[in-house]
Amino acid sequence: RKEVEQDPGPFNVPEGATVAFNCTYSNSASQSFFWYRQDCRKEPKLLMSVYSSGNEDGRFTAQLNRASQYISLLIRDSKLSDSATYLCVVNDIRAYKYIFGTGTRLKVLA
Amino acid sequence: NAGVMQNPRHLVRRRGQEARLRCSPMKGHSHVYWYRQLPEEGLKFMVYLQKENIIDESGMPKERFSAEFPKEGPSILRIQQVVRGDSAAYFCASSTIAGTSRYEQYFGPGTRLTVT
Asked: Among A77, A105, B91, B96, which has the minimal tally of Cβ within 10 Å of its Cβ?
C-alpha cells in the first residue's frame, strides 16, 4: 500500500461546479497534513495546511478524518484558473519529512 | 524576490559529467530540503539540511549524490557521473524553524536536469 494515495483523475468539471478530492494515508502517527497545487512543469505551491478541526480559505475547504486516515479538499464555484494538479502531503514520524501523493488532476472547462 | 531561488533552471549534461544544482532559501528560513520528481511521478524526499549540517539524507541514492549547505552561500546538490535515469526535476524547499508555520515548506521553481 502506498503511504499516500490519491485518485489521479483527471476530474473534468464545468466552471462553477463543486469538486472534491480525497486522499488516504497509511501512517497513523502522521501529524501534519497539507494540500499543494502544482501547475504543469512548475513548483508545488502551498494551498493550505489541514487542521484537525477542518479549515476553510475562500472557496477551498479542507477536512481531516484521523480515524479513517483520510484528508479531503473541496473546491466550490470552480474557476478556469483552478485547473492544476492537487497534491496531498503528509508528514511521517519525522515531522520535517513530507510524503507526497502523486496528485489529482483537475481541469475546469468553460 | 524573497522566495526560494534555484539555479540553473535548466541543465543539460552528457552521461558521465557532473551536475551542480543550487538553492537559496527564502529569507528567514534556515532549513532546506531537496526533492526529485520523475516524469509522471510524485515528489520524493532526498535530503534535509540545516546550515553546515545534514540532518537526514535517507532519500539520497548512496552513490554519486551529495548535498551541502555551507555557512555562507546556497545549498548545493551535486550529482557525479550522471546517467540518463538522473533526468528529472529537482526541487528545493525551505522552511522556518519555529512557530505554527515551522512545518510549512515553500518550494523553488526547480532545476530540470536532462542527461543526454
From this structure: A77
